Amino acid sequence: MALVDSIRSAQVPASEVPAAVIRNLVNHKNTWLRDRAREGVGTFTDPNEDRLAVLDQKRAIVIAGQPNLENGRQLAESTCLICHKFNGKGQSVGPDLTGVGRSSLDALLANIIMPNQIVGNGYELVVVETKDFRTLSGRLIENSPNRITLIQAGGSTTSIERDEIQSMETTNQSVMPEGLESLPDQDLRDLIWYILSPPEEGPLTDEKKKNLIGLHIQSPPIDGESVALWDPAWQVIAPDFEGTPVKLPNHLGRQNVLSIHPWNLQKPRHFSA
Ligand code: HEC
User: What does pTM read for this prediction?
Assistant: First the structure.
């Protein structure tokens, strides 16, 4: 299929293709097409209403009251850094959080509450059954002719010889579990603010808080990192041009809209994921 091939070979940057089209391709009932599209772009799953309601509810909790960043650090170390690196600490099961996914409160909450909405290529949960009836899962970090290796939360790895494998499935789920937001209110507030603004990146001033919450700002924060997560090959070529590109949690009644700079005044460029 020409479009899929051009995306894979990067003749057409995937960011030029509406997310709705990509979603159709990666979920296509033609398995050949679907597999090639997934190889090229990763997977998309629509968030359901429940998750969106949870997002609103948790957002309100995080915004209310003062955070205790030291408690947030401890919680982050025990619940997130078992999979993520952050300012030099932690494991590499998921992407390094220092530079991605936390440019705003909404971006961070969406990533935590809906980890399966956009799963970057190579970050899917792979499930392997062995001939001696073991079931193993994790992120695939080695896929060679002789063996495969999975990495699991905590950073431990398991290698399996290819001739021991009964079946191997790449799911459309993230290695990152759902439900991490189910912490007591104060703990969630502490954790979120710590990740958004750890003390080593400077004090959490009221101004910084407002910016992260998205209050009183003309152009929302640049969110190039989420764009890259849609596909690692996607690049933000003009990272800071008139407030684009940006992932808007809501835009004109649609959710998760990727807004990029318009061609001209007549042609808007908003893509819905
Ligand atoms: C079991 C491993 C695991 C745990 C635990 C985990 N994550 Fe993740 N996380 C991942 C993986 C894998 C990805 C990449 C795929 C995806 O987006 O689902 C990811 C993606 C993310 C992203 C999106 C990054 C981007 O590129 O935009 C953010 C933000 C994030 N995680 C934050 C957190 C926070 C905060 C916690 C703790 C509350 C946490 N994660 C716990 C594995 C984990």
Answer: 0.69
